[in-house]
Amino acid sequence: MNARHDRNPLLMPDFDAPHWRRDFPILQQQVHGKPLVYLDNAATSQKPQAVIAAVAGYYEKLNANVHRGVHQLSELATAAYEGAREKLRRFVNAASLKEIIFVRGATEAINLVAQSYGRGRFQGGDEIILSEMEHHSNIVPWQLLHEQMGAVLKIVPITDAGELEPGAYEKLFTSRTRLVALAHVSNALGSINPVKKMIVHAHQHGVPVLLDGAQAVPHLPVDVRDLDCDFYAFSGHKMFGPTGIGVLYAKEALLAEMPPYQGGGDMIRTVRFTGSTWNELPHKFEAGTPNIAGSIGLGAAVDYLESIGMLSIQNYEQALLEYGTQRLQTVKNLRLVGTARHKAGVLSFVMEGIHPHDIGTIVDQEGVAIRTGHHCAMPVMEHFRIPATARASLAFYNTREDIDALVQALEKVREVFR
After folding, report:
1. How much helix, strand and coil, in percent to the nearest 5, is found in the chain?
2. What is the DSSP string of 366-400?
3. pLDDT in tens, 43-77
4. 376 among known catalytic residues
């Protein structure tokens, strides 16, 4: 079911999840009189004390606008803000600070590329390749481009295991293909796509590739130069940082040619009523007062993740996924949705005769937080001919005991609907 399914899932890596769990204040509380078991990390992750302190520290000690002031607070705030950009550059191994654009999240990053890169280059009939497993954030911006420019969307189908249909991707390329936009990791299925191989193929056709990395960066090491992707979008709140902040990585040569996405202060060099000129990268794409506290908090999240080690996180979560897969398969009348050979920590499932919303409501009473619904991936649900799934999604602070609590709560669901 998984790339490492032959390994005993009871043998966990030497990783002290309870130690890291203590860094998260929200995980110390009870829900409905029971200890909180938080398994909704694909929707948003919890925040360690270090991130909370970084955000509070900005407002307590540094609160000033950036890039504009010569007074000490402004200079300190600017240093902290740009220092966070350097942390993000290092985290994904971008070649230059000019390639790291702060945005509100992966959604805005993808919209930026669609409107700045796509709208200025595409013509009616030009083609964009997506996959059937995309999040709505990597579908709707391209549909808007279809309405604006007549761009054509071509879709890579998925198998019933939740993998891309073998050979289908390569067959979609034509002389009109202008962009590939793919999820690195599926939020609804957990499938890890073979993006490096897919990028090589696209580049052989002279086609740039955008990756939606929102579900990848919290769970596995990401090196944009090794991948050789042209654009990479991700959100802070899924990687233990604040909400309302994210990053668009893009190759400097592409950003240099792209027009601004928004107009306003700080993205300009000169402004006259007869016309304006633009600031240098990356500021050309950061109009107005940015989310300074969010950026600093995201930088703190990077520091925190690097103190643990992304490879250690990946290995631990892989073992926990295998354990969770085994345990959920013991629940009668439960069917996993998404059984790709290469997966991140997502366990989507349905239970015969029980709506996922009822599952979520009952397990919540047992202190277990999971997600139910279409997960902003309605084409995935249509593929499997279901309205929704229940989804447990993992992070490094989760434990086998959390999985056991979920399974016990699901037995309560079966009792209610027996």
Report:
1. 40, 20, 40
2. TTEE-EEE-TT-HHHHHHHT-S-EEEEE--TT--H
3. 999 999 999 999 999 999 999 999 988 999 999 99
4. yes
Rounded Cα distance, 130 and 138, in Å: 8
At 334, list the tokens: 């439960």
- Given 376, 378, 411, 412, the catalytic residue: 376
Q: Is-contact 94 249, C-beta < 8 A?
A: yes
Query: Does the model's pTM come out above 0.70?
Result: yes
Cα-based angle 388, 394, 396 (whole degrees, multiple of 5): 170
Residue holding tokens 């399914």? 5
Residue 394: both structure tokens together? 């993992």
Please report how the helices 292-308 and 310-328 are oriented relative to each other, as an axis angle in degrees rounded to 10.
80
Q: Is residue 85 within 8 Å of residue 234, measured between CB atoms?
A: no
Structural domains of the chain in order of their starting residue, each with its CATH number: 17-31+309-416 (3.90.1150.10), 51-306 (3.40.640.10)
Whole-angstrom distance between the N-terminal and C-terminal Cα of the chain?
29
pLDDT in tens, 158-187: 999 999 999 999 999 999 999 999 999 999
- Give residue 126's region: left, alpha or beta (phi > 0; psi -120 to 50): beta
